[in-house]
Amino acid sequence: MSIFGTRPEIIRLSRIFAKLETNFEHIMVNTNQNFTPELNRIFFKDLKIRKPDYNLKVNTGNYGKEIGEIIEKSEKIILKEKPDVLLILGDTNSGLAAIPASHHGIKIVHLEAGMRAYDFRMPEEKNRVLIDHLSSVLLPYTNYSRENLIRENIHTSKIYVVGNPIIEVINYFTKQIENSSVLEKMKLGTKDYFLITAHRSENVDDPKSLEKIFSGLEKIHLKFKKRIIYPIHPRTLSKIKKKIPKCIECIKPLGFFDFTKLEKNAFCIITDSGTVPEEALFFGVPCVTIRESTERPEYIEAGGNILSGLEPDNLVKSVKLITSSKNKLEWINSLGDNKTSDRVANILSGKIERQKF
Ligand code: UDP
């Protein structure tokens, strides 16, 4: 059984689902944590994922209600279906289905294990630690994440480094990404624009932080004289109180093919997303992360990313610095290759068939 409910989970799991569907009896549970169609339903169609077996339709009105419903509703399905194993990816509230699963003795396999920002202000950091420590099998993307787990006394026999699944998704859909006509539709030229995403609670829940982001983007527009394209997350939209500066072109969230086409052709990407800096490095596009901490230091080490924080002047300096480098940005194979879904399926098969966790 896999339980998921947000945009990045659906995207990252898509090729793994393809493998599970043909080789296992696979029950798919969508919590609907990201409930708007452009953050959830659209990806099933585009990424060729079948309709899930269950939709928990969790109420995301507030934290307690959301977590409560995820636990209560996933428990019912877990007890009904009694899966051999529960597969969870990442650190969202949907992943907290690990709590009832663990309570009822269901083995948990955690993909994207071991990421640590060492910053407990992030709700995701709490979820990561909790899910990792409830899991029987931990599947980090990189050796860096594996080391984090070992430092927390998780036994090495439970850990397998499997690589980052996002690469497989981009490679599989290369043609569809190339065929996207989003540049023509938006009258954008290559390297002519900035691409923005920002939605993390520590950035958008406090109006002051959001204002800093907008003020930084205004300065970027003045300095670089390029268009600023911002597919805006509904979470962010719901928090905006003041008028958005005119120079920022806010559009609805895009489908995966249009969005990655925009990533590939951007002059620079400015984001607080976890996945977007990975995709930026894959496409060799400079990226500035507007956060105070990151669980993905590998992308900074690869030379593709600056962690700028939110201060407007610092954002401008960071963009200037990273876009002035003459070095070619390159994806490093050790971060992920095209074999993640094979590895995940092989590990699951070995464990389930022998019931040895
Ligand atoms: N994405 C998309 N359309 C958009 C913005 C992002 O398809 O308008 C994709 C993007 O390519 C990446 C994923 O959504 O694969 C990132 O999701 P998000 O930033 O919401 O989550 P995070 O990675 O921070 O967990």
From TrEMBL:
<feature type="domain" description="UDP-N-acetylglucosamine 2-epimerase">
    <location>
        <begin position="21"/>
        <end position="348"/>
    </location>
</feature>
<dbReference type="InterPro" id="IPR003331">
    <property type="entry name" value="UDP_GlcNAc_Epimerase_2_dom"/>
</dbReference>
<dbReference type="Pfam" id="PF02350">
    <property type="entry name" value="Epimerase_2"/>
</dbReference>
<protein>
    <submittedName>
        <fullName>UDP-N-acetylglucosamine 2-epimerase</fullName>
    </submittedName>
</protein>
<dbReference type="InterPro" id="IPR029767">
    <property type="entry name" value="WecB-like"/>
</dbReference>
